[in-house]
Design a protein that fits this description.
Helix content: over 70%
Shape: rod-shaped
Largest sheet: none
Number of domains: 2
Number of strands: 0
Amino acid sequence: MFASLLIFWQTTPVPRDLPLPLPLPEWLLVVLLVVSFLVHILFVNLMVGGSILTLMAQIKGLKNKEYDTLAHEIASTITVNKSMAVVMGIAPLLCINTLYSLYFYSANALTGLMWLAIVPLVTVAFLLTYLHKFTWEALEKHKAIHISILAVSVALFLFIPLIFLTNINLMLFPEKWGTVKGFFSALLLPNVFPRYLHFIMASLSITGLFLHWYMGRKNYPFETIFTQLTRFELKKKGYSLALVASVIQFLIGPIVLLTLPSKGLGWNLIAIIFTGAAIAIPAMWMMWKGINGNEQTIDKDFKKVLILMSVTVLFMGSGRQVYRANALEKHRELVRLRTEEFQKRKKEALVESQKEQASEQNANLSLADKGKNVFNQYCAACHKPNEKLVGPPIIEMNSIYKGNKDGLQSWIKNPGKKRPDYPQMPSFAAQLNQEQLDQLAEYILTIKK
């Protein structure tokens, strides 16, 4: 165990941390991170999946006008979902910054310009979606241009999450920080693309369920918008998309798990992941029954499907956090030790610096001033300059030993008892060296009325 820890220490960058207190209890920040991230990723999935479906429907609409109408209807939801994705992304970003500042910013620095490019890329993607939405009629006769605008937007929507995923993935593996040379180097870590494909399938699955609900709303004027496609047909398409994407997720899941470095795997993670997968199975069965049922029964289990899939997502999101905690546990302990070591050295250096300053200041003092410091340390509890305290005042000592420094020092080292109204003075032979005795005597003999 010690040998493996030593090897890990030698091959992994272990910076010191800033020992600042968390603004909230750690468990609460973890809960906020998991919950807020799931809300954020829901709208990201709808944004990405909706953009893909819109593009596919609009391309199909070149031959069948009805699908162009479907593309228009789905496109109307994208701008709302993307805005929600951005707003809901603030909370998890703040939480992960607070909990894993060292790791998050290290990954940001290593992915470099590509991480900084997220803001302009998101801006361009958003502007393109608005341009696509509000030029639908203006570019009716220029479908190639209109579809190209959306295609570029979809490409950006697919690329931006890849940057995020690569960055979040890199923060889990500090042992790779020394070998990663930018974004594309981090992109080659073994589990990036399986996780990315899993994300794309999740986006399509959630968008399929959204399409099933959106087209089936009672207040949705379906018959006035579509002339050939039916509600039942589009509901089945939504269910089918969700089911196929979920099955692909099931197939990719083991690959994602196997490509994750073993350092973050544990029975707690395995239990969470398999429980979430088990809960999704009856939901998939219900979708299958809905697809193969009739118009009256297709919505029978929809609420159950939503509940089961939501619970599954909650388990998967929790598993993500468990893996993160497992993977970074050893390194965080090393960082804690490095930070404690640094703090200790800092304290020792401060003490040494203060001693040096005191020594320098003391070197500049006169012999009497140095004696005053000795007096304050050893004598001031019993003697005052001009008043009787426990022992006689300094001016009295001065009058007795004026011109007799050796006699004063002898008395300090071996005092007797001369007067009955004063207590016996203790000897200071053991506490004071000759240099201090010289300084003290000089001070006492310079005190005047």
